[in-house]
Design brief:
- The chain has 245 residues and is an alpha+beta fold.
- It has 2 domains: 14-93, no CATH class; 108-216, no CATH class.
- 43% of the residues lie in helices and 18% in strands.
- It has helices spanning 108-121, 125-139, 150-159, 164-181, 192-220, 225-244; strands spanning 14-16, 23-33, 39-43, 58-61, 66-77, 83-87, 90-93.
- Strands 1, 2, 3, 4, 5, 6 and 7 form a 7-stranded antiparallel β-sheet that branches.
- Strand 1 and strand 2 form a beta hairpin.
- Helix 1 runs antiparallel to helix 2 (125-139), helix 2 (125-139) packs parallel to helix 5 (192-220) and helix 3 runs antiparallel to helix 4 (164-181).
- The model is unreliable at 50-58 (pLDDT under 50).
- Residues 116-190 form the DUF4145 domain.
Length: 245
């Protein structure tokens, strides 16, 4: 599975850069307005925590003669050296997704939809959630289900021994995705946290159903043929004993 993704977060010292995607340290700056009407951003040792009670106020620094609000800040990536602009504790530039990147083992057609969902996630949690539901619908036939309605496909996988944890992940994506398409009891409007969690869930499903089996099979292939025959004989005897038991 891809490396742990740390979404950009106001005031954090390190996260995945919204421009270059590298996980790296961030230098934070406060934006200051000087009497000459020149707007500058200057490094600050510790970024002040956003305080909603001071939304309409300015911090007047009489000694240095500048104004600094408690609304805006800039973070600069140590890798690409590009800046990100934050207003009221929220990332406003670049228009980047906070969602994790798709797993490298995600099937290409599924990853294409996932990436599209990622692209619109900063603009609409509802739209990205609906696209993730579509990505799930594309994924299930590639992990052992016959093409049908999502609910039916999940039930088929359960009958084949799908783990309870993966079933919960699939049903979460299905039900919440349905709410995005046909609004019901779950309010997805501007619900970024739920949207980001669903991106993570789809990656978890790919990890459990594609990445981990592939990794296990690659190691299993290293077992000598005569040893594999012994394993097959053991399993065959165990099944006969269970059947006759």
């Amino acid at each position: 599975m891809n490396q742990q993704y740390a979404p950009p977060k106001y005031g954090e010292n390190a996260f995945n850069c919204p421009t270059c995607s590298a996980y790296t340290q961030q230098q934070w700056y406060e934006i200051k307005l000087f009497p000459s009407n020149i707007l500058k951003y200057e490094a600050t040792a510790g970024l002040r925590e956003f305080d909603s009670s001071t939304v309409q106020s300015w911090d007047v620094n009489k000694e240095n003669g500048y104004l600094a609000d408690n609304l805006s800040a800039v973070s600069k990536c140590f890798v690409c050296e590009e800046v990100s602009v934050w207003i009221e504790g929220k990332l406003v530039y670049p228009n980047a997704s906070l969602a994790p990147l798709p797993s490298p083992d995600m099937p290409e057609d599924v990853a294409k939809i996932y990436t599209e969902a990622r692209t619109v996630s900063a603009l609409s949690s509802t739209a990205s959630t609906a696209l993730l539901r579509l990505a799930l619908e594309k994924l299930l036939p590639q992990v052992g289900a016959k093409k049908a309605k999502i609910d039916v496909m999940i039930g088929e996988l359960v009958s084949k021994g799908l783990s309870k944890e993966v079933e919960k992940a699939l049903d979460s994506l299905r039900v919440i995705g349905n709410e995005a398409v046909h609004p019901g009891t779950i309010d997805l409007q501007d619900n970024t946290e739920v949207s980001i969690a669903l991106f993570k869930l789809l990656n978890v499903v790919v990890d459990r159903m594609i990445t981990q089996p592939n990794e296990i099979n690659e190691i299993y292939k290293l077992i000598p043929e005569n040893k594999l025959k012994g394993i097959e004989d053991r399993n065959s005897k165990a099944l006969k004993t269970q059947k006759n038991g």
